[in-house]
Design goal:
10 strands; branched-chain amino acid transmembrane transporter activity; alpha/beta; Rossmann fold; amino-acid transport; six-stranded mixed β-sheet
């Protein structure tokens, strides 16, 4: 479904990604783990067209997308939930969700999807007329995920969904991520600093250091890898 071939991404003269090769099959949950500054967020921004690669290819269903604008990539079926949530604080929950569906013109489908995200996150239905900025951090993360789902993505990019949240809320959000994948068939590319949680959620994982992929394997094998345990799992 998604393939990165020898992708190199720069910020000015600073190289953030070096010859990245990643493959994501339809229906999978894939995770990318690594320390802060390893290049995980840049990888997602490269896929979504926000920071285009200087060289290499990003293929989505066999078609190159590395030169497309972000709105075109969203229309093709890729949505990103950014780190820090970045909801619209002055808009209501419903208005935030409408913004997620901005590129769509199927009103019946939009209503159907809005009903669906309210089923996934009932607290958003209860507070649908409140401004997004008045929500707790966990509720804002739920809203950010829901806003991305309103674009009806086939591939959902999640950047640090557990960041700054209480353990109970984190468990709830990750259960929803698994539910979205299983019930809707949505493919998930998960960037997460909580490596233990990420690997227990995903089918396969990639490990990134200093802008390079140093290891890839099944999540089960990565959880059992002694070097990964020491470096990322605190074991």
């Amino acid at each position: 479904m998604l393939k990165l071939n020898n992708v190199n991404t720069f910020y000015g003269n600073i190289q953030a990604l070096r010859n990245i090769n990643i493959e994501v099959e339809q229906g999978e949950i894939i995770t990318l783990i690594g320390a802060n500054g390893a290049g995980k967020t840049t990888t997602l921004m490269t896929i979504s067209g926000v920071v285009p690669p200087r060289s290499g290819e990003v293929l989505y269903n066999g078609k190159p997308i590395q030169k497309l604008n972000p709105d075109k990539i969203v229309k093709m079926g890729i949505s990103q939930v950014p780190e820090g949530r970045l909801i619209f604080p002055d808009l209501t929950i419903t208005e935030n969700l409408d913004m997620g569906a901005f590129l769509r013109d199927d009103k019946d489908g939009v209503k159907e999807d809005m009903d669906h995200v309210f089923e996934l996150f009932p607290i958003l239905w209860e507070r649908r007329k409140q401004a997004g900025g008045n929500l707790s951090g966990g509720e804002q993360q739920m809203l950010a995920i829901s806003r991305a789902l309103m674009a009806r993505p086939k591939l959902l990019l999640l950047d640090e969904p557990s960041l700054g949240l209480a353990p109970l809320i984190i468990r709830q959000i990750f259960e929803i991520i698994k539910k979205i994948n299983k019930e809707s068939g949505t493919t998930v590319f998960l960037v997460e600093q909580n490596a233990n949680l990420a690997l227990k959620t995903a089918h396969r994982g990639y490990v990134m250091e200093n802008g390079e992929i140093i290891l890839s394997d099944s999540s089960e094998n990565l959880l059992a890898n002694e070097e990964i345990k020491k470096a990322y799992l605190g074991l």
